[in-house]
Amino acid sequence: MDSLPVKICFIAPKAYPVFNPEVESVFGGAEVDLFLLADELAQVPGYQVNFIVADYGQPDCELINNVTLIKSLNFNESQITGAKKIWKALKKSNSDIYFAEAAHHGHALIAFYCKLHKTRYVFRSANPSNLNGEWIKNNGLRGSLFKWSLKHCHYIIAQNQSDKDALQNNMGLPSTVIANCCRLKDPADSEKKYILWVGRSDTVKQPELFLDIAQSIPDRKFVMICPRATNDNRYEQLINRAENIDNLDFIERVPFHQIGSYFDNALLLVNTSSTEGFPNVFVQACQAAAPIISLNVNPDGFLDKFKCGICTNGNFQDCINAVQTLISGDEYKIYSQNAFNYAADNHDIKKIINQYKQLFASELK
């Protein structure tokens, strides 16, 4: 085993646009997570990295920065046809470890493949609902299939301690906490000039609330980067409303490799989601020394513990007040520096990848 490369296959069909910015299609935090891990691991001697993505019209196999991308399903095909293509891609990958993220009934197919071929299956959560039983309860047969996949994982990774505890309490399954990662860099010496919101237009992210905040603070500039979420029939209404707010710039899409500059120029990141795991935008904001104002999401209370932002625990007026107070107050520079220090100490990809290397080594013993 020591003389052969460890073969790892990541599965995230919607991740192809992260690898190829010319493809203008929606992706989310789970896709960014796996892209960063795959891209970093592919540069480590002794690892061979494959990545199963959907059919965006690209070649069947494509090498990008040492990661072999394997084309699989087309989202316009039937689920049966899609499952067959995923299975074919899993077989083509011929890996030692298969790695997927975020709740989906399709993970049962991966778990069954790994069980049949005596390979390892690793799952990483992306939202509290992945591990607290909520997604399983609300999705009928799909939920049951996902639950089966969790019970047949060789390893489960939680984004935070709360999710780890929820999985143990709800299903009696163990997991390990490994934080989201980022490529650390020194904060850019750029002008902090606006309040930022970044995310898909999913209902759970409550993007309309950011518009309310912008209207409530007309003397400040706001920037909203919000691509259309899958099956969002209200997106045009959101755009139309945003266009009538003078102090708001609404941007429909920014390629992943360009998003960092928007965080560099942000005074604050605002998060209006009703629930999330550990949003990648939190890590990106902290990396750029931009404190966070969050309406609800505060994994393991890190905003309070490290004093890198403020969570208003669901109180919307407090959220508006927190935005105004923090950017105008004497403590802003302290929060800004704390945010960067937190990212450096907890999310540096060089540190995180070592945790994964230890995990993979233990799985292959």
Strand-helix topology:
Blueprint: E1 6-11, H1 16-19, H2 29-41, E2 47-53, E3 61-64, E4 67-71, H3 79-93, E5 97-101, H4 107-117, E6 120-124, H5 128-131, H6 134-138, H7 140-151, E7 155-158, H8 161-171, E8 176-177, E9 194-198, H9 207-216, E10 222-225, H10 235-243, E11 248-251, H11 259-264, E12 266-271, H12 280-287, E13 292-294, H13 302-305, E14 309-311, H14 316-328, H15 332-346, H16 349-363
Parallel strand pairs: 1-2, 1-5, 2-4, 5-6, 6-7, 7-8, 9-10, 9-12, 10-11, 12-13, 13-14
Antiparallel strand pairs: 3-4
Globally, the shape reads globular
Would you count the extended β strands for me? 14
Ends distance: 9 Å
Per DSSP, the total helix count is: 16
Q: SSE string, helix = H, strand = E?
A: EHHEEEHEHEHHHEHEEHEHEHEHEHEHHH
Largest sheet: 8 strands, mixed
Provide the residue-averaged pLDDT: 94
Structural class comes to: alpha/beta
